[in-house]
Structures are given as C-alpha cells and as structure tokens.
Amino acid sequence: MMTMPTSRVEAFSDGVMAVILTIMVLEIHVPEGHDWAALTSSGLGMSLLTYLLSFIYVGIYWNNHHHMFQITERITGGALWANLHLLFWLSLLPLTTAWLDESSFARIPAIIYGADLLALAVAYFILQSVIIRSQGAGSTLRTAVGRDLKGKLSPVLYIAGILCAVFGRDESPALVYVAVAIFAGVAILWLVPDRRIERRLATDGSMPGH
Questions:
Q1: What domain range is 182 assigned to?
Q2: CB 3.0-4.6 Å disulfide test: which of 14, 54, 189, 205 passes with 97?
Q3: For 88-104, what is each residue's pLDDT tens digit?
C-alpha cells in the first residue's frame, strides 16, 4: 500500500485554501466614489457579508482538516484522491459565492451555493471515512470522531436550506433569506474547532510523523 507523510498533504491543502481565500476577496468590487455613500450604493456591505460567510467556511474546513491530519498516521492513495475531491468543491466556493453576491441572493444562485456546501460536507465525510478505513479497527481518528453528531446533522441542514431556496421566489425572497440563514447557522455550529480531536491529542500526545 502506498503511503506518504501527512505533512505534504497538509502543506498542499493549506496552499490551495490560501489561494481560494485570495480569489474570493478579489471578487469584491472597489466602491465607486470616495465618500460614505459609496459604501451603500455599491452594495459593498452585502458583498462583505457574503465573503465573511464563505471565509468562515474555508476557515472551518482548514481547522478541521488540520485537526484530522494531526491524528492521521499515514496517507494512502485513496486518501490523496479523497483529499483532492474535497479541495475540488472548496475551489468552487469563490464562484458560487460571487454568483450569490452579484445576484443579491437570487433563488438559483442560493441553491447552487447550498449544493456546493452539501458537496463539501459529503467530501469531508468521504475523506474522513477513507482515512479511518486505512488505519484499521483501532483507528485513533475513529475513536476521536465518535458518533459525529455535527457531521450527520450538517447535511440535513444543508438540504433543508436548499429546499427553502427551491420553493422561494425571486420576487419574494423570504425563503431564500431563510436558506442563507440556515447556511450561516451551520457555520456557527462548526466555528469551534473539533474538541474531540483536541482531547485525543492531549491524551496521546503528538502523533508520529508530524
């Protein structure tokens, strides 16, 4: 079985996520004018809020990715592809964020944004499962993750948000705003780093190879 140090995967993933954040901030347009009115007339406030939400999501995945790899002993070929799968959906976040922002929270962009978040959650679960399977029945990660209630609840909430956007209307966007609020709620749910893994690290100490 092919294995490689986890540090290489972490370094590559960190670089990709840094580029994603850079692209997202570059999508924010500079206000036209040099007074306070320019901030409101240009829609900068909404752009910053949309950027903040996606920034938090990238930060959440960076945090949890880092914690997961702290207790990952080895990387297999399957884990490499699963990690690339996660990065693929993350790399689409600047596009879906920009579309959601420029449409002023229209129905279809909100659906696509939610679908991207759902795909990210599924991709992270796949990566986590591949690593656990490669480490065997005594996997430290499996023990640390436990029942993974937040991991199971998040896709359900994403689907609920997507359905709200599906049944919303552009001319009466109340349900679309509810959808975005649900997406923001999931982000708040994950803002705190995974304490289960932190506790495991405190108990076992640093894993070999880190």
A1: 6-204
A2: 54
A3: 999 999 999 999 999 98
